[in-house]
Amino acid sequence: MNDLCAEIGYKSINHHGEELCGDHVDVVEENENSTVIVLADGLGSGVKASILSTLTSKIISTMMAAGLPIEECVATIAATLPVCSVRGVAYSTFTIIHILDNELAEIIQYDNPHVIVLRDGVNYDYPKTEMNIGGKKIYKTAVKLRDEDVFIAMSDGCPHAGLGGLYNFGWKREEIISYMETLVCGGYTAKNLSTMLVDECDKLYGHKPGDDTTACVVKIRKRVPMNLLFGPPSNRDDNDRMMSLFFSKEGKHIVCGGTTSSIAAKYLGKPLRASLSFESSDVPPIAEIEGVDLVTEGVITVNKVVEYAKDYLGENQYYEHWNFSRDGASLICRLLFEEATDINFYVGRAINPAHQNPELPITFSIKMNLVEELSACLRKMGKRIKVSYF
User: Do the bridges between strand 34-42 and strand 129-133 make them parallel or antiparallel, or are there none, so unpaired?
Assistant: First the structure.
């Protein structure tokens, strides 16, 4: 087994004036190293398109994750969903990216814009095999995965961007490729790449999209471990054991909390140097300990990280802020969201006397809830999470 993993991110914007998106992305994990990603584009827009695309993506992803062949999946879709009575055309188009053992990607495409594959930062012209299943022309491809390969699946809202406005014939595939080649060099996450592509389409539409627009990016990368220490242990006698386990782990080390950082500094025999400059008005300053990659304040900073994590999984509106800011929460976000694939949490259950002031809105349960919320968000991002309590 190799040390690669697939990072998946997607974003959609609705047709102008519609409450629901007619595109839908479904991600199903077969096992720890195999994933089925389906992007479906329902006919038209609005409620009907949303129902059709959701059913299409759910049926295909569930069946493929169960190991059924593509022929059976398409036959089931054809038998389950209606054909438009007015136009007599397909209920929903789809793109499937099937990651197998983090070694191979199967790409199956029906009537959506063809998947763009970037390898070594430039367009990779992959071979396609044409198949006819139930009268439908379907293209199938198998690509052996390499580190830093990027797969970009789109609904037709992307190439239609600017149609009749900034561009007479829409945003051409070659132009989209050129735009994404520039971004890939920046080392952005799959989620941020998909966000930037859809945001650019939104601009070309004059912020009034003429079609539902979705981009789904799959980025192949090597596994990167990360360790985060949050709070001192409930029993002071466990200080050294907790620190020993934390610092013995491979990967970068993040320490959150004033008391926690003092214990870490004492364990390492290094001075704790606090900064007095506020990079952000709502996040306390960071500190430094030799041998620790990042030292921050505790509850307030982690609460901000959770806020950014929830947004990252949704609209991803704050990505520009935490990508370029230097406050503690933004630095943690860059390490956890962008760098890490496997994250070990070391959480102390000690009750901070400062938090017992009834004037303060911070309680022990809030601290534990933050860990649970952040862990849940990171799992949804596709990270492997392990939480150890002390």
Answer: unpaired
Tell how strand 34-42 and strand 287-289 pair up: unpaired
Please give the mean pLDDT across all residues of the chain: 90
What number of residues does the chain have? 390
For residues 8 and 97, membership in a common domain is answered with yes
Identify the sign of the CA torsion 206, 315, 15, 178. positive
Contacts of 85 (CB under 8 A, 6+ apart): none
Query: The domain containing residue 327 runs over which residues?
Result: 225-389
DSSP tally for the chain: helices H, then strands E = 10, 18
> How far is Cα 45 from Cα 26, in angstroms, rounded to an integer?
18
% residues pLDDT > 90 (the chain): 72
- Round the CA-based radius of gyration of the chain to a whole number and report it: 23
- 299 and 283 in contact (C-beta within 8 Å)? no
Residues 323 and 385 reside in one and the same domain: yes
| Number of structural domains the chain divides into | 2
pLDDT above 90 for 259? yes
Helix (H) or strand (E) holding 7: strand 4-13
Residue 197: which residues within 8 A CB-CB, separation 6 or more? 11, 152, 154, 158, 176, 179, 180, 183, 215, 217
- Residue from 153, 134, 160, 25 nearest 81 by CA: 134
The answer on 239 and 218 residing in a single domain is no
